Amino acid sequence: MLDPLGPPPAWLRTFVEPYALRLNSPTLADHIHEVFLAFAFYQFIHSFLSPWLSPILFPTHYNKLNARTKLNWDIHVVSLVQSVLINVAALWIMFVDTERGQMSTGERVFGYTGACGLIQALAVGYFLYDLIVSVVHVNMFGIGLLFHAASALWVFSLGFRPFVNYYAPVFILYELSSPFLNIHWFLDKVNMTGSRVQWYNGMLLLSVFFCCRLVWGTWHSIMIYKDMWYALQQTWSAAASPLQAPATVNAHVFRLDSGSVCIDETCARANAEIARFKDFTATGVPTWLVVTYVTSNLILNFLNYFWFSKMVETVLKRFRTPAASAGKPDQKENVKISEKKDLHENIPQGVILEAAAKLEEQEGGRGELGLTPEQISSAIDAGLGEDLRRRRAELVAKVPLPGS
């Protein structure tokens, strides 16, 4: 599938191409305009649209925020818009890009389509914005988010070689959980902590996080490891070729036909585009590049499992019996049973909201998490805490004082 937005202006492509070739990223010259447009769009939302529109939509909340929280608000608006747009674009391309769907094993590593290049460009534009924000406000957000932004920008930029262009929309779908995470943050800021809306959103957040990051992400990590192992074998085979033989992997990678018959020029161009950069990738993929991708992918998967384990830990805490109040054994047991029953009646809502808050905390939250999980738990049902205090008071009143 060709790039839906078309090529950049000729003057821009001519200007960028020498630098792109020097960086071993030839496809960057075809998508540089999309990188710039994405960066400018997100910066516009951050600097102008969100500060202008948020006070209109949320006049009683946004204007009362301090400067730090307003900055976080604007950043979360950018993150929400970006995650929705790029997820929609990635899903659309995965369904309509027939050339991508017909790629062989080698083509999934060395091949290229303009549509997948668009996804890479949009991601690079966002991470460039994210990197600048992290640098400018490093004292506020910390060095961790700075390294995260730099690493994400680096990894997605390597796709302009082209390298694993096929997997660009696949791994972008990690972001499917981000809209729900941002909505969870906004609900805290508009005094809807513990509401039914936040509970339903939290259920979606945890479900989507598990499905897209753990199930989907792990499966496709295995697939990309297999494809890269194939690519390395072709590289080593080409490197071991006799000196008089051309060192190329193209004969083992690109097929002579796509398996379908084209009836128009657009289809023919789209199929030819897969092998467009075969001269650049003829010597195969360097080992360091595979090591970089595998290492980055393993770290990201480890973080996803770590974050989810923290969420599970938060859930399990809600099922533990609370500490008993002071009193006689039978009265102590009555308090324990009363608290346990009341707590379990509210577990579904409490579990979801506390786990969602834990995920917000583990993923960074830009240093402004709002309420802690404990505060959220107490806000889930005000009647629960009040009822427990009333019951404790009644039980204590019935306990005879010493010496009476």
UniProtKB/TrEMBL annotation:
Protein's membrane topology: Multi-pass membrane protein
GO biological processes: lipid homeostasis
Keywords: Membrane, Transmembrane, Transmembrane helix
UniProt keyword annotation of Transmembrane helix present: yes
InterPro entries for the chain: TLC-dom, TLCD
TLC domain residues: 68-320
Location in the cell: Membrane
GO CC annotation, single: membrane
Residues passing through the membrane, by range: 35-54, 75-95, 110-129, 141-160, 166-187, 199-219, 288-308
Keyword Transmembrane: yes
Protein known as: TLC domain-containing protein
Organism encoding this protein: Penicillium argentinense
